[in-house]
Amino acid sequence: MPLSDSRFEERLKALLVNPLSMREILTRLKIPLATRSVARKRVRAIAEKGAVVRIKGGRYGLPEKMNLVTGSIQAHPDGFGFLIPDDPDENDVFLGPRSFNDAMHGDKVIVRVESTKPDGRREGRVIRVLERGSETIAGAFEKARGGGYVVPFDRRVTHDIFIATGDSKRAKDGYAVIAQITDFPTKARRPQGKIVKVLGKKDDFNVEIEISAAKFKLRKDFPQAVLREAVKFAAPLEKDFKGRLDLRDKQVVTIDGETAKDFDDAVDIEKLANGGWRLGVHIADVSHYVKEGAKLDVEAMARATSVYFPGAVIPMLPFELSNDLCSLNPKVSRLTLSCVMTFSKAGVLKKSEYFESVICSAERMTYTDVAAILEKKDKAVIGKYKGLVKSFKEMEKLAAAIRKQRQKGGAIDFDLPEPEIILDVTGRPESIILAERNVAHRIIEEFMLAANSSVARYLEETGSPAIYRVHDSPDPVKLEAFREFLDAFGVRLKSHEKITSKKMQEILAHFAGRPEEKLVTHVLLRSMKQARYSVDNIGHFGLAFDHYTHFTSPIRRYPDLVIHRLLKKRIRKKGKGPDEETLAQVANHASKMERNADEAERDMVKLRQTQYMAAHVGDEFDGIISGVTAFGFFVELQTPPVEGLVRVTALFDDYYIYDETRHSLVGERSGKSFRLGDSVRVLVENVLLERRQIELLLVVTGGKKAARRPTTGRKKASKAAKTGRPRRRGSPRRKTPRK
User: What domains are there in the chain, each with its CATH number?
Assistant: First the structure.
């Protein structure tokens, strides 16, 4: 029986104690002559993805034995970059401007590590490009003699693409286009290509979405075959409810934001005689419609996540499903997968049960209305939903009890508000506010966390391979820097004392309500690793959960859909789910696509912020220093909540030296410092839309006027009208953070 790909790779790696030729590999693996041609292809395929490396003399070896690392390049607009290793446990490798060779941003490469600093930081050089990150580039077309150039919108792609006469598709100067690279760069030649699509004026709202989709390789439009599959489904009938737990008589509700269109979770609560509660979390049964291997499934897997922009969304599933059949709309029967949990009066989970079910949502509630009932005691809203008020009060009590239990376990809750961008009818930003997080948000967050944790525990206890949402412990080097940082505030941790999530929670509580609170929170966040998907359950450090997965959002996250399928097989007690190797591939892909979606969302938010601030050039604002680097410091304005940069070259009263340990710039002569968390007053000097950058000048620091360059002749931008225009739909937002 032939070995699986993963088993063959394991045997090959175990064999390569020393570099071996292809013939030596085949001989030592005892590959029969009749199947050697197939085995050669398998070895070459493993080498192509970088798991083993072909070296001089045609021999194959292990990259880690030769100081080689395989991964993807994350370039920086200033010319340097980092290798992000395929192995998430490895540290990044710094690449200087001359270390790229022929590689570009996004390429999968092999890097030779050439030096390692005492703190573990590594520097290296690209020795081979394994796979190009992309063959297409979104950019602005600039006409020139003999053709023109496409200047990439993604500034991490530092090469302009030459377009020969006849390959421009008649694009107008300055228009947004997509170019296909026909010749990649070498030391002797710049990249060349041809325009394959003209998008239009780059400042048009719809074109901006197209640009972002092309820039971050998002799948914006669904193939026709996928859409045909999506429209063939009808609303569920009584025959579809057979074998399901009928919960249509329960007082089930959805609670979402005002602009939400897809409702994938609903809840109901029952107060028990012993003082505890029975909580039902009911999730849209997307797996009933999206079957494994179907065109819808293949497309959903490729996308892996929905991407949310201010005023727009690129969904994982077509709207026919995400906004209709799979959405738990009010007053209609919907198929669900239910997690029913019993809690003690102290908020301790006592029992969990799982059912394929059918519900009929009694009401589509908003966070605002639930908060108006519970916090503001609004009589009009209470009167409107009087039949549900008692349930909401019990939900509030249970959520508080669950939260208290989580905090006992050491869960870290940062609870930092995010900016929300309000658009006018043309798609231009009209205002920027901090999104409100009220009691209703906290209720739903606690209930979803509880359900996710419960399902993860059940799958592990029943022996089912699964995809977990994991969060590694912080990097020891960053933790040591955080320990030194706390010293400056008189908080001294013993050198041998382990900084657990519980300890981090205590540190945040110590600074709660103090001026340094935001500063400490920012530094602590930067010491944390990124959550990801994995088949290895290492727990979730930030949430302090031993078991955690994503189960509650199958409309917008593919791992949740996979978890639903696994859970249903357990409920039915029949059928085998995917093996661990297949699940690992899904987990790795979903993690990668999530990071890409996060980048795309941040980029669009920054674009809207810079568009808004373009009307405020010359205006002054109060802010807090939110980041310090060797080239200057970032300032987060209090209102509107946007971030800009004060360059060190704009500080004229002294030479400033960067103190990395204390997160500050310190004057060489005066000793004056600019430290993370300091209050400052700044003036908006310039706004660079394509760089997503707001340039600031210091006006006041510590109550004193700051020295700054002369402002004579600076022309203040005319302000756009701020009133009298109807609002476009606000920002579609996720219900809960990606934890």
Answer: 5-62 (1.10.10.10), 67-131 (2.40.50.140), 136-215 (2.40.50.700), 233-453 (no CATH), 473-528 (no CATH), 618-705 (2.40.50.140)
**CA 336 to CA 287: how far, in whole Å?**
10
Residue 49: pLDDT band (50, 70, 90) is confident
Could you say which DSSP state residue 129 is in? E
Tokens of 152: 């990439």
C-alpha dihedral, 558 to 559 to 561 to 566, nearest 10°: 150
- What separation in angstroms does the CA of 325 have from each of 236, 237, 263, 336, 361? 8, 12, 10, 11, 13
Cβ 291 vs Cβ 317: under 8 Å: no
> In this model, does residue 600 exceed pLDDT 70?
yes
Quick one: three-class SS letters along 473-490? CCCHHHHHHHHHHHHCCC
| Residue-wise DSSP of 670-684 | T--EEETT-EEEEEE
- Average of per-residue pLDDT values in the chain: 90
pLDDT digits 0-9 by tens, 421-433: 999 988 999 999 9
8 A C-beta contact, residue 264 and residue 328: yes
Given a contact cutoff of 8 angstroms between Cβ atoms, the answer to whether 7 and 39 are in contact is: no
CA–CA dist 669, 653 (Å, integer): 9
Report the alpha-carbon distance of residue 176 to residue 162 in Å, rounded.
Answer: 15
Taking the model in full, what pTM does it have? 0.85
